[in-house]
Amino acid sequence: MANSNNLMPIELLNARRTREERSENAKKAGKASGEARNQKANFKKALNLLLTAQVETEWTEQLQALGLDSTYESVINASMILQAAQGNVKAYEAIAKYAGQLNPEEETEETAHAWSIPITDITSDFVAPYRSVHAAFSGEENIREIVSKGGRGSIKSNFWAAVAEETIYQDPEAHVVYTRRYKVDLRGSVYNQFMKTVIRHGHLDDWEFTTSPMMARYKKTGQCVIFVGADKPISLKSYNLSFGYVKLLIHEECDEMAGIEQMDNIEDTFLRSDTPALDIKVFNPPKSKNNFMNQYVEECRKKAETRVFHSYYFNVPVKWLGKRFFERAEWFKIHKPRYYANNYMGEVTGTGGGIFENVEERVIPDEEISNMPYFYYGLDFGFEHPQAFIKSYYDQDEDILYCVDEVYSKRCKNSTFARKIKKYMNVEIICDSARPDSIAEMQDWGFNATGAVKRWGSGHGRDYCWEWLQMAKKIVVDPDRCPHLAHELTTLEHEQLKDGSFSSEYPKLGEDCVMALIYGNNRNIMESRRNSGLYDDNEEEEMEDDDE
Q: Per CATH, the architecture of 359-532 is what?
C-alpha cells in the first residue's frame, strides 16, 4: 500500500520532521551527493577505457585500411556514419557536431555546454579568484574560504554575483546564500545586484524573484539564491532546504558584521555537508587597522584553506563605472590623498579608533597669524553642554587648517558669552542653525551672526563634515590658544564595540569645539563637496542637529 507521506510536498514533510531529523537527513544527502559524484567520475573513467579498447568486428579490415585502430570508439563512429547515410537525421547532427561542422549556435539547449562567466565581465584582478573558485569546486585545491577586499568601484559585488549565477547553472544540487548584517539593507544592495547580473546576461526569464521570502529561484531546477540578514539568528537556525546543499555563502559588507563570530555562526548553519563549498567574505577595508576584518585578513594569510584577494577600480574599464567616477577619484587622489588611499585604494590608513590622525599641535606665533589673510569664526551654542567659539584659517592651496583662538564656557548665558567674544562683533560668525532664538539674540546685541547652511543632500551631512576635517592634509592647533579644541582633536575616538572593533559613527558628546570649527568652515565644506561631485544643489536635507 502506498505511504501517504510519499504524496506530501517535500517542504511539508520537512516541516513535520524534528530539527535533529532534518540535520541528519542533510548530512546523509550531502554524503550521498558526494558518493554519487565519485561514482559518476569512476564511470566516466571506465567508459573512456572501454572506448579505446581494441575489438574485432566486421569493420576491422575497413578501419585498418584507412589507417585507424579497430576500437569501440571507431566502430561506433562507423556505425553512426552508416545510419546517417540511411537518412537518420540525429545521427548526422551528432556526426556534424563532433566533426566540427555544426555551428555552436545551432546546438540545442540540451547539448549546450554549462554556462560560465564571460571573460569580458571580469577584470585582471579577478582571474586568480575565479581560478580559485573552480579549483575549490573541482577538488584540485583544498580551499574553503576566500576574502575579497578592495576599494570603491573595484566591482567585487559584480564579480561574486556572476559567480553565484554560474554556481547555480553548473551544479543542479547547489544553492547560494547571501548575507548582510541587517536584513533591511539586502534589497537595495545584493538582491538588486544579483538581479542586474541576471538581466545583463540575458537570463531573467529563467528566474523568479520574490521579496517575501527574499530569494531568486531558478525555474528549471528549483535551485535558490537566498538573501538573509544576520540580525535575526533564530530564523537562520531554522532555515532548511528542500534538496541539495549550500555551495556558496557570500557575506557582503562583512566589516559591518558584529564580528567574525557572527559570520562563523552563519557558516555553521548553512555549510554542513562534506561537499565542496566556499565561504566568501567581501568588504572595503575600514581605515582602522584595529577593525576586526583588517585583523582577520592578517590571520587569513597564515591559513592554508583561505585565499585573500585585492581588487582596484583602475583596472575596471572606464565605461563600466563612468568617466565621472574616475574624475572624482583623481580629484581625491590630488586633494585628499588619505581619503583616496582608504576609500579608492582599499588601504588601511588608520592606527586605531582615533578620529583625527592629521593633527599637529604647536605654537602658532603672532607673526604667523598676522600673515593669514582672513579667518573663519564658528559658534556652537550650549548651556549644560559647553558653549564654544573657534577662530580658524583655512589655506585652500595647501589644504591646511589653522586653529588660532578659542572661547569656551559651560553653564554660561548667551549674554555673558557674548561679552566674552565682544571683540569679534564686526566679523561674520556662523552658528548652529538649530538655535534661531540664540542667533536672533546675538544679532540684537550687534553681532553679525548667521546660521550654518545645512544642505547636504545624501542625509549624511554631519558625517561628511567630520570626514572633511579628517581628509585635510593637516590640522594645526595651538594648544595654548585653543586648549579645549586641542584636547578634543587628539582624544576623540570612535566607540569601541564588544568585539574590540570600532564603530564608524562619530561622537555626539564632548565635541563642542569641533562642531564650532565645523560651523565656522561651513562654506569651505560645502565647496569641497561640490568639487568632489558629492553635492547636489537640487537635494535639500537637514544635517542632523546635536542635542543641547
A: 2-Layer Sandwich (3.30)
